[in-house]
Design brief:
The structure is a single chain. The protein has 651 residues and is mostly helical. It is globular and about 85 Å long.
Length: 651
């Protein structure tokens, strides 16, 4: 099958799997950093805001959740108000709309990858890059199919990373390789063979304004973006440059200065927007008169969310709440987990990669010495040529470009873009795999040609296919796979209850349930609860529905569950208008049965959401043996008892 057909097929799968929808729940941040926040701000749903949205110490800019979830929710709100779609705010629509919009944003990465391949192929003829093969590898990766269709801030980070690489490779203008090679030997090349750089560089192709905007936007989205932008921006700043008369320093300084206006304007705009959103500024204080009257007061009230996030992440005591990891986790665990055989190829290429870097450094020094010697020995000759009009005053500098870049090994550039961010991100001892997901882009650009069904590469190709099928099933279907379907079901249950009823929903030993999928509206101004147990305060929906309480017990002990159940059950006995639901992994079914037998409560199993894999409560050997002994049960029933999420009602 042609690479283009493979890419088209997986592109359709990317969208179709979003619509299915995917049941896997990768990490709470996919909900609580974007759709949960925007459901409260745009749809006026009762939601739970995490520590990052604390108005006293905000650590996230609302601009990017608005981009990924706010826009889709605003469209839904408009459709609902116009009555164009009867069920425009169902739980299913609330789930897939932000994901579908994020999937559309992920296709920007496809575009950038294709542009990168075209730029490399056009400027470095000796480098063979197949654009559609790159796209096929990218679209077939489970990182793209699963992680890049979820509302993680890492998706936008990957889009910006790909865009910066594409812009920088487009801005670097080199002469034809054979012409440059001959230029080192003769003076026969013409002006057209080399770019104009300062005192000659064509700044219209430098993309300095756009690059500065993207870097600042990336920094506010995730401060770690600077680690991803480091290598590309160093190449942009230093290549191509002069090597004589100190002109290289002038070129670098000028390029950096070109970034300043766009960066300042973007930085200031986002800070003002964030400050207004979190209430530290109001529209009156942003006026020119207010600034002239009290400029210091304005600056003191500014909210710089990335700095707050950085200070939080460098506080080890706070990071301990999220889990600490060895600093080699990204390099040795997360890269194989995300990238499979591509990560292994990068490791195997390290000796060759290191040799090339050393070779470039040595050759660069030798070129510098040669240029210095040639300058001394040929100064009189060039002066005479200038007088005779044979060469211009700038010709003597145009041919001396930075050596490593004039004969650029693109694979080295891409590997630097892959390894350097991973090493920088490893400094902070909290390592989640998705943090390094943007590194897929330079990695596939470096090794996409190895993924072919030929000769010794058959093993590499087979490993790539097997690893991505496994990763897609694990994170797209199995991992915490019952939480979202249970919320879609409970959305219908809650909205069918009578308005006089109270509903308590307890999630036990699962990831935090995103409350906005229940579709509970609020007439209150406060949209954040304190405490971890009841994550949705008392609310009523817009159709005078029941009073709903959503409780997240996370990994609490059975004693905590017992206390909560006793409290709610006593209320149920008094009012007789309350319903109590428990959602927990099927691996705890025996535990709940034992609790049921010791109390007056009747815990009735209503639904089993299959499949559901809880890494915190995996099936144990005794469960498997006990299930196999039940000969009357079918294979599916046995699997549900091992890999399911159970919904109970307390009678």
């Amino acid at each position: 099958m042609e690479a283009r057909s493979v890419w088209l097929a997986f592109s359709v799968l990317r969208v179709a799997w979003v619509l299915l929808p995917q049941s896997g729940y990768v990490h709470p941040d996919e909900f609580f950093q974007s759709p949960e926040v925007m459901a409260g701000a745009v749809l006026d749903y009762k939601v739970h805001l995490t520590w990052e949205w604390n108005e006293d110490f905000p650590a996230r800019s609302p601009l990017f959740p608005y981009l990924t979830s706010g826009i889709p929710f605003l469209v839904l709100k408009t459709i609902n108000s116009l009555g164009l779609l009867a069920d425009s705010t169902s739980a299913y629509v609330l789930l897939i709309t932000p994901r579908l919009w994020t999937a559309v944003l992920s296709f920007c990465i496809d575009f950038c990858v294709y542009k990168i391949c075209n730029s490399v192929g056009a400027k470095w003829k000796q480098v063979k890059m197949d654009g559609f093969r790159c796209l096929a590898v990218f679209s077939a990766s489970y990182v793209t199919l699963v992680l890049f269709t979820r509302t993680f801030s890492n998706v936008l980070e990957a889009v910006l990373f790909a865009a910066i690489i594409a812009l920088i490779l487009d801005s670097i203008q080199v002469g034809k390789p054979e012409t440059i090679h001959d230029k080192n030997k003769t003076e026969s090349a013409t002006d057209e063979d080399f770019p104009d750089i300062i005192n000659g560089q064509d700044l219209s192709h430098s993309h300095s304004v756009l690059l500065s905007v993207l870097i600042v936007v990336g920094f506010f989205n995730r401060p770690t973006f600077l680690a991803f932008a480091l290598v590309p921006m160093l190449y942009w700043a230093f290549c191509p440059i002069h090597q004589n008369n100190g002109l290289w320093l002038k070129d670098v300084i000028w390029k950096v200065l070109c970034l300043v206006p766009g960066a300042i304007l973007t930085f200031g705009t986002i800070i003002v927007c964030d400050s207004i959103y979190f209430g530290s500024l109001n529209f009156q204080s942003v006026s020119v008169d207010a600034f002239l009257h009290s400029p210091t007061g304005l600056f003191q009230n500014l909210t710089v969310t990335p700095l707050n996030l950085l200070s939080y992440n460098f506080d080890k005591s706070k990071l301990e709440q999220h889990g600490l990891h060895p600093r080699v986790t990204h390099l040795l665990v997360n890269t194989p987990l995300l990238f499979g055989v591509l990560a292994i190829l990068a490791f195997l290429d390290l000796p060759h990669f290191g040799t090339k870097i050393l070779s470039y450094l040595k050759q660069g020094k030798s070129k510098t010495k040669m240029s210095s010697t040639e300058k001394d020995s040929g100064s009189k000759q060039r002066t005479q040529q200038k007088k005779e009009g044979h060469i211009s005053s700038t010709d003597s500098t145009k041919g001396l470009l930075l050596y490593p870049f004039t004969e650029l090994d693109v694979e080295v550039f891409f590997l630097l873009c892959y390894f350097i961010p991973i090493l920088i991100l490893s400094v902070v001892p909290h390592h989640e795999p998705r943090y390094i997901s943007p590194c897929l882009i330079p990695l596939l650009l470096a090794f996409h040609n190895r993924l072919v069904w030929k000769g010794s590469n058959k093993l590499v190709f087979g490993g790539f296919v097997a690893a991505n099928i496994l990763g897609g099933v694990l994170f797209g279907v199995l991992h915490q796979g019952g939480v979202v379907p249970s919320l879609l079901h409970l959305h219908r249950v809650v909205h069918n209850q009578q308005s006089t009823e109270k509903v308590h929903i307890i999630y036990f030993h699962t990831y935090m349930p995103p409350g906005h999928l229940l579709g509970i509206h609020s007439n209150q101004t406060s949209n954040q609860s304190t405490g971890k147990i009841d994550i949705l305060p008392k609310v009523t929906n817009e159709k005078a529905g029941p009073e709903v309480h959503l409780h997240d017990l996370a990994g609490a002990s059975v004693n905590v569950l017992s206390k909560e159940l006793n409290t709610f059950y006593q209320q149920k006995q008094v009012d007789n208008n309350a319903r109590i639901y428990i959602v927990s992994p099927s691996t705890l079914h025996h535990t709940l049965n034992m609790y049921d037998q010791r109390t007056n409560m009747s815990i009735v199993l209503l639904e089993v959401f299959f499949p559901h894999l809880s890494m915190e409560d995996p099936p144990n050997v005794w469960d498997i043996v006990q299930i196999q002994s039940e000969k009357d049960s079918t294979l599916l029933e046995r699997l549900k008892l091992m890999f399911g999420l159970n919904l109970y009602e307390v009678m």
